Amino acid sequence: MSRPMAGLLMALGVYGATLTGYAATLAQAKPEIFAPGVISAGTNVLAPAFSPDGRSVYFTSATPTTSTILVSHRQGGQWSTPKVAPFSGQWSDLEPAMAPDGSFLIFASSRPLTSEGRAIDGVYEGKTWPGMGGNLWRVDRHGDGWGLPQRLPALVNRHSSVFSPSIAADGSLYFMQPDSDNGYFHLWRAAYVHGQYQAPTPLSLSDAGSEEVDPAIAPDQSFIVFSRHHPLQADRNRLQIAFRHGAGWGVPMDLGDAVNGASGNIEARLGTDGRTLYFSSPRNEPERYPRSPAEAKAFVVRMQAWDNGTKHIWQISLAPWLDARLASSGVR
Predict the structure, then answer these.
(1) Domains detected in the chain
(2) What is the pLDDT of residues 278-307, one digit of tens each?
(3) For residue 196, which phi and psi values (nearest 5 degrees)?
């Protein structure tokens, strides 16, 4: 058992038979590729946002220099060929987040602040990134369509590099923005009270010298999943989970090597059940050599579809972590 897994078990306080069963379940945890060859295909794809009925998904399709939000619909048990979302395409848009009730969607975009402006510049990691900044924009659902995107208030968009929104059931908004001193990203929360965002406050999840990105908040704000990395360490972007502890958060726990075995696990998102985790990773299916002719043919097909080193969307159930938390609470 890896140190992260052992630490997770001890932190949750699960003992005896519960401990043994949880360890066995966690050791078998294995992410699965999401919609291979249809959604997980071609370019880098990230950040799926599902409609409440789970029949539509909005997600980012990206190259190293630009990104667009696409939409796909589930029809007859299959996902349709993705198309550009009606509110995206003109500017570099990314990271859609669906309100739990489906009434609106918030996304990040480099689009200018005025109609005559130009794409905003990003400032992070000690550099200026021309035209690659981000502010958060909201688009409301109108029947079967969407309205026009509206920029969130300056109280939220206080920086030219505000990314990765996540929306709680009460409207509270979680997101990331860089530290003004070193340019590392950290997580923030803007409470939503009487139809107005309150001044954002930083989440108490920081580890000295680390960077936290891409929050996925549970609708009831009982837990959060995000990615963490230490810029001076080689093992980047490991997924973590933290549970609500009073008015703050407990110690974040690494999801373990079975999930984090590949580097670069980012853009955590929750499915409509609140228990399925989606994330993006360049991970590949393991290969064994020598291959048989059938295995070689299957590999070529898979590589042409998605297994080619670009970031694609993976999914895994959070049931072991969430159920262990409940068991721990029962013991106490």
Answers:
(1) 3-331 (2.120.10.30)
(2) 999 998 887 778 888 888 888 888 888 888
(3) -135, 140
